[in-house]
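R.M. (postdoc): so does anyone remember the format we settled on? I'll just put the structure tokens first.
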């Protein structure tokens, strides 16, 4: 059926508005409209796109529902490898890491501390500002192409505000509340429950039916750019700010520390706060802030010399929703 200009404009308006509302709700955690308003506009867009499918764009908010059933996952080669982090388990090991860094640099650098989200590493590739590929880490060089599934994750932008080529990396995770609800439902259905949110996220992302992924309420925190492309950033702290400006979901609990002692107090602080977070963390990632210093430290065969993960002992199982402090 041919569409009048008024209809074409209404479809474009609804796609843009619902994308803006979705970004505010899922990425910035600051809703702009109430659910009833969102749902009414969403239903109107669904009806219009059903009547005029030639105007349903692949980055329309209605494209998030999934529906592709893949025969299997294609391999995804990482041009820039995804390394893993070295781990430290004690204050002494952390301070030894700092000593090694200072020995190479000849000075004590600033560090950025980030919560270590206990999810699945993902890599997102954008071309001319559009999401063209999403992949798991795999062995760091070869992962699985999970683009169709990642498109159903509401906090992942399908389109960037600039038409640039970019590759970003981060974690895809399942919030504690979604994990508890999912396991409760599976128990009622006599299905096997997931051991922890990380396994539940992995199982949800590696579904061949993206409708199932869409139902699992996964979220993301992005933390680095594989290549900085046109972005002029010189520190990890700036990179996090830029990623936020590009529309990616960034964990707010990052902190620049001016000494390893300050890093240690950040670690102690979050060791206590951890059980109140609405998502699971398994430690704190400590990174040299300046990219120039990161480059002079480089990588070992499998891990960066400029970062380490201070690991917390395994958290006691997530029990009730009451324990969670939703203000964080
Ligand atoms: N789970 C995480 O929340 C998290 C993980 C990593 C990495 O795995 C990681 C691996 C590298 F080779 C370099 C930097 C990294 O930074 C990271 N930063 C984070 N916040």
């Amino acid at each position: 059926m041919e569409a009048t200009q008024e209809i074409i404009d209404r479809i474009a308006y609804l796609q843009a508005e619902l994308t803006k509302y979705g970004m505010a709700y899922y990425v910035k955690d600051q809703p702009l409209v109430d659910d009833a308003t969102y749902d009414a506009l969403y239903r109107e867009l669904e009806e219009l796109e059903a009547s005029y499918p030639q105007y349903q764009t692949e980055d329309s908010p209605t494209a998030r529902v999934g529906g592709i059933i893949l025969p299997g996952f294609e391999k995804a080669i990482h041009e820039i490898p995804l390394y893993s982090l070295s781990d430290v388990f004690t204050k002494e090991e952390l301070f030894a890491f700092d000593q090694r860094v200072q020995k190479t640099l000849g000075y004590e650098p600033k560090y950025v501390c980030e919560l270590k989200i206990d999810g699945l590493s993902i890599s997102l590739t954008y071309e001319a500002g559009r999401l063209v590929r999403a992949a798991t880490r795999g062995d760091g060089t070869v992962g699985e192409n999970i683009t169709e599934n990642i498109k159903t994750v509401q906090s992942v932008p399908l389109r960037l505000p600039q038409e640039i080529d970019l590759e970003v990396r981060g974690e895809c995770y399942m919030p504690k509340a979604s994990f508890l609800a999912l396991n409760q439902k599976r128990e009622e259905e006599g299905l096997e429950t997931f051991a922890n949110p990380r396994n539940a996220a992995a199982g949800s992302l590696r579904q061949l039916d993206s409708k199932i992924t869409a139902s699992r309420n996964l979220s993301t925190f992005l933390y680095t750019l594989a290549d900085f492309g046109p972005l002029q950033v010189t520190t990890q702290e700036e990179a996090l700010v830029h990623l936020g400006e590009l529309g990616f979901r960034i964990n707010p609990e990052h902190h620049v520390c001016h000494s390893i002692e300050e890093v240690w107090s950040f670690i102690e602080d979050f060791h206590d706060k951890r059980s109140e977070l609405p998502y699971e963390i398994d430690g704190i990632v400590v990174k040299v802030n300046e990219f120039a210093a990161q480059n002079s430290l480089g990588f070992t065969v499998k891990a960066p010399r400029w970062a380490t993960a201070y690991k917390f002992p395994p958290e006691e199982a997530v029990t009730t929703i009451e324990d969670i402090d939703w203000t964080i």
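R.M.: ...and that's the designed sequence above, right after the tokens. Also worth knowing: The mean pLDDT is 94. The pocket of 3B8 is lined by residues 83, 85, 114, 116-117, 121, 171, 223-224, 285, 304, 307 (CB under 6 Å).
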